[in-house]
Specification:
With about 140 residues, the chain is mainly alpha-helical. The protein is built from three helices and two strands, in the order ααββα. It has helices at about 1-50, 60-75, 125-135, and strands spanning about 110-115, 120-125. It is elongated.
Length: about 140
């Protein structure tokens, strides 16, 4: 009984769906014939003018140029990367103990400071150097307009 209802259900479904499938097939066949005839009659004047009927159109030419550019880029080697010099920073994991140095008078020991390439070198004492570190620099103060 179950098999009978299965076969009857498929038969009824086929009877209901077949007309829609037939209409879709006929419409597709009519569309295909129309496109064939339109293409045929559109190609005749181009053939009589001496133009190539099977020549690529503008879209085909643009696509082939784009593909050629991509192929050329794939074949060429990428430019060498710009390598910038790296600075190495060494961090000491173990804190160093301050070394005790013998007392030297500030006049005996001097430090050399270079301002820039064009200026001559200046010699200053440690005391002058330490004083310049503790001076406060005031930024943004100037003549009022």
């Amino acid at each position: 009984m179950k098999g009978l209802f299965g076969k009857l259900g498929k038969g009824i479904l086929f009877v209901v769906v077949f007309p829609f499938w037939l209409i879709a097939f006929v419409l597709f066949a009519i569309y295909s014939i129309f496109v064939f005839l339109f293409t045929l009659f559109a190609a005749i004047p181009a053939y009589l003018k001496g133009e190539s009927v099977l020549s690529p159109d503008e879209i085909d030419i643009a696509a082939s140029k784009k593909l050629a550019e991509q192929k050329l880029q794939a074949q060429t080697q990428p430019p060498a990367p710009i390598v910038q010099p790296q600075t190495t920073i060494i961090l000491n994991a173990v804190p160093q103990q301050p070394q005790v140095q013998p007392h030297v008078s500030p006049e005996e020991k001097e430090i050399v400071v270079v301002n820039d390439d064009s200026a001559p070198m200046q010699q200053i004492t440690i005391q002058d150097f330490q004083e310049s570190l503790h001076e406060e620099v005031k930024v943004g103060e100037g003549e009022d307009k």
